[in-house]
Amino acid sequence: MSIARSLNGDGRYGIGLALAVALLLLPLLGGEPLREAWRYQREAVAAGQWWRLVTCHFVHLDAGHALLNALGLALLWSLFARSYRLGSWLLAIAASMAVIGCGFWFLSTQLRWYVGASGVLHGVFACGCVAMIRARDRIGLVAAVAFAAKLAWEQWHGPLPFERAELVVTVAHLYGAIGGTLAGLLLRPRAQGLY
Fold it and tell me: How many domains does the chain have?
């Protein structure tokens, strides 16, 4: 088995990964004006700019933040890309975005702004763990327990010690994970034996 295939980077999967990473990095070209226009900003959403509930996941604090999210995407891609078909993954991402948006709007009313893909990436991780657990893969169970512990830590103690605490919106991680878990429970994973 080739290394590229084992990391889900072969053929159309490699092209898909390149396109997904480009989607996260291209908004950097728009700079601060695009970040301001696309970020979740409670007052702007209240004024009718609902697109910000989606676009906020594509803009970042800076290039370093975008690269970290792109690396996170590549890691998740290598773990889970073959777990679901493309359409199912798009539904899982949409579910994560929807739960994050609803959580921000209805539950996190004190949150003024947000940018980044980390919430959605947590949704992808949760959805991938559900697929592995449904396939009776023990690694999926171990990953899910560690992931749940991380989320619990963040909700009780704040960001992990190596993260920039003032810039991490940990509730986005929780909302994304809830959306991804719900999607994973509703979607049908691909045939077993892909791990």
Answer: 1
